[in-house]
Structure formats: structure tokens, C-alpha cells
Design a protein that fits this description.
By secondary structure, this protein is mainly alpha-helical. The protein contains five helices and two strands. It has one domain.
Length: about 90
């Protein structure tokens, strides 16, 4: 049986590999049992001091999508500057 941490590490590793990101690229998994709990996790994440104003704006735009799409898991990975300049609505960004 795998722990949640093991599953998270495996998920992040696969995502980084899929998008050609280095293993040490900053990454976060936010989740909740329900969309409401995920929104609460996102709001707590937005209080983190290490996030830039741009990153906070990007993450804040996820809040209405979580409820509309009934999401309960979000994976955030910071890639290269080139990836950050792409449209955040495009798949894979």
C-alpha cells in the first residue's frame, strides 16, 4: 500500500518527466475531499510568502474553475521562463 506522499512524489515525477522539467523544479499538489476543501487549500497556499504576485494571480484564477469543474486536486509545477510566458489556458502549462 502506498502512502499519500509516495503517490504525490510519483505523480509529480511523471508530470515533470512528461513536460521535460528538471526533477528539482518547484511543484505543489493541492487537494481536498471536495471542491470546497480544495478551494480552502488554494486560499491557504496563496498566503505563502514565497509566491510572487504573478504566481498568486495565476493560482487565484483557479478558484472559480475548481467549483465549476468539481475538481478536488490541482498540481502546480513551475517550469522554465518560456513555459511561464505561454497562455495559462493552454494544456500543459
Amino acid at each position: 500500500m502506498l502512502s499519500i506522499d509516495e503517490v504525490a512524489r510519483h505523480l509529480l515525477s511523471g508530470i515533470k518527466e512528461r513536460f521535460g522539467l528538471p526533477p528539482g523544479a518547484p511543484a505543489y499538489i493541492l487537494w481536498g475531499v471536495s471542491p470546497k476543501e480544495l478551494q480552502e487549500a488554494i486560499l491557504r497556499f496563496l498566503e505563502e510568502d514565497h509566491l510572487s504576485p504573478e504566481q498568486k494571480r495565476f493560482v487565484k484564477r483557479l478558484l472559480p474553475k475548481v467549483e465549476a469543474k468539481e475538481m478536488n486536486l490541482v498540481v502546480l509545477v513551475r517550469g522554465s521562463e518560456e513555459r511561464q510566458e505561454r497562455n495559462p489556458e493552454e494544456p500543459g502549462t
